[in-house]
Design brief:
CATH architecture of the largest domain: 3-Layer(aba) Sandwich
Distance between the termini: 20 Å
CATH topology of the largest domain: Aminopeptidase
Number of helices: 14
CATH superfamily of the largest domain: Zn peptidases
Number of strands: 19
Strand content: 15-25%
Shape: elongated
CATH class of the largest domain: Alpha Beta
Number of domains: 2
Length: about 475
């Protein structure tokens, strides 16, 4: 989409934001903060987006309403649209940035497999926006990265394989972004046996991708972002039900987020050093699939008893985390993973769960999430949770000794914590937030959401 800042709109379709106090100017419009309506005046079309009462205003409302208004413009088959930057409480730059984000994210549509493509807005004019051209460009870069992540999750699992994710990573390589890929033979040689075990039942072999972004010089400390990339999860020999398997292309949403983040960093070029690591596997059921009851040695040297082959994501993350720690010595580690259905039970589809061993790191991530409306909430991690992951025949087990379903999100995090050791770390369980099976909610589309990309880039200070 082309974005054009203008002093005077040339488009004949306008998005106008209306507070409750101004609804009298627009008959039959209540200006509720989830209401969008159409008003015609001669050859002009006005898409009215309500903002509710000024006293209740937040930039999140503006972001969501801008998205709803853009969806309405697309349904009206408008090719050009002008948005008037609203005069709203708070800092104008923050509000207008949220507005532009909402418009760009709301315009997203996954239509790759549709014979008849839906209409879309081709040009977005901005009037009275308190944003520089660089700020506009940076916001567009961030939103492009979110949409890139969404596309990866939404597409066919037979297309988005571990090898395909590796190609996406390699395609991003440039002077500031070095990329290394370990194939299935290298994984076994290096001792990433947990990853290799999960992927051995599939015709699509596993891959580990390491993307190094250097924006702060060689002596600056590194931050590690690690993504779970199970490109399809059948459950393995502990087979999922048909209903449980239907959306399992989403199980690589953590990997998609990390790839999107690294793609944006290469363009935005903030002064920070980041190592992005993606463990990509397909968990299939085959004669060569790994067995429940077997024991495998991890990259870190700890042995793991397989209690359930459907608890595979934590195995992938364990090897990815340990490999990253040993070879890149990051100062802090944040992982993104669609790890547990239990997180959806606890926090629903609008808040991601966090397990962390560091208060300051969690506080920073929480603040970044609040700023961009990608909310997170911390769950506790106590010694009894870690004890529940101890095996009778190995060092660890991949499913807790607790009654099935009890503290599932926490014990999943407790397993990963064994491989993080004393490095400041936050595990973000995006099982509920990465994929929206309901209707669109403002800037959050149906199906893949791209959750985590904006949160991480805000936390890293990239925009």
């Amino acid at each position: 989409m082309k974005i054009v800042p203008v002093k005077k709109a040339t488009a004949d379709s306008h998005i106008v934001f209306v507070f409750d106090e101004k609804k009298k100017d627009w008959p039959d419009f209540e200006a509720a903060d989830d209401e969008v309506a159409i008003c015609y005046d001669g050859d002009k079309t006005f898409i009215l987006a309500g903002l509710g009462k000024k006293g209740d205003f937040s930039s999140h409302i503006l972001r969501s309403q801008a998205a709803r208004a853009m969806k309405k413009a697309a349904k009206l088959k408008r090719k050009k649209i002008c948005i008037f930057g609203p005069d709203a409480p708070g800092e104008a730059k923050v509000n207008h940035a949220a507005c532009l984000e909402g418009a760009l994210l709301g315009a997203y549509s996954f239509d790759r497999h549709k014979s008849e493509k839906p209409e879309s807005v081709k040009e977005l004019q901005l009037t009275d926006f308190a944003l520089s051209s660089t700020e506009v460009k940076n916001i567009q870069t961030v939103c492009d990265a979110v949409c890139f992540a969404r596309d990866l999750v939404n597409d066919n699992a037979h297309s988005i394989t571990p090898e395909r994710l590796a190609r996406e990573a390699l395609d991003m390589a440039d002077d500031s972004l070095k990329v290394k890929v370990l194939d299935e033979k290298m994984l076994k040689k290096e001792g990433l046996s947990l990853m290799a075990a999960v992927g051995q039942g599939s015709v699509y072999p596993p891959r580990l991708m390491v993307m190094e972004y250097s924006g702060a010089g060689p002596k600056a400390k590194k931050i590690a972002l690690i993504g779970k990339g199970v490109t399809f999860d059948s459950g393995g020999l502990n087979l999922k039900s048909n209903e449980g398997m239907l959306t399992m292309r989403l199980d690589m949403a953590g990997a998609a987020a990390v790839l999107g983040i690294m793609k944006a960093l290469a363009v935005l070029k903030p002064a920070v050093n980041v190592v992005g690591v993606v463990g990509a596997v397909q968990n299939a059921m085959d004669a060569k699939a790994y067995f429940p009851g077997d024991v495998y040695r991890s990259y870190a040297g700890k042995t793991v008893e397989i209690i359930n082959t459907d608890a595979e994501g934590r195995l992938v993350l364990a090897d990815a985390v340990a490999y990253c720690r040993k070879n890149y010595s990051p100062e802090r580690i944040v992982d993104f993973a669609t790890l547990t259905g239990a997180c959806i039970i606890a926090l629903g589809e609008t808040v991601a769960g966090v397990i962390s061993n560091n208060d300051n790191l969690y506080d920073e991530i929480f603040a970044a999430g609040e700023a961009v409306a990608e909310r997170v909430w911390r769950l506790p991690l106590y010694p009894e949770h870690k004890k529940a992951m101890k095996s009778d025949i190995a060092d660890l087990r991949n499913l807790a000794k607790f009654k099935r379903g009890y503290a599932g999100t926490i014990t999943g995090g407790a397993f990963i914590a064994e491989f993080v050791e004393d490095t400041p770390w936050a595990h973000i369980d995006i099982a509920g937030t990465a994929f929206n099976e309901s209707s669109a909610r403002g800037e959050v589309p149906k199906f893949a959401t791209g959750f985590g990309v904006r949160l991480a880039l805000k936390w890293l200070g990239a925009y």
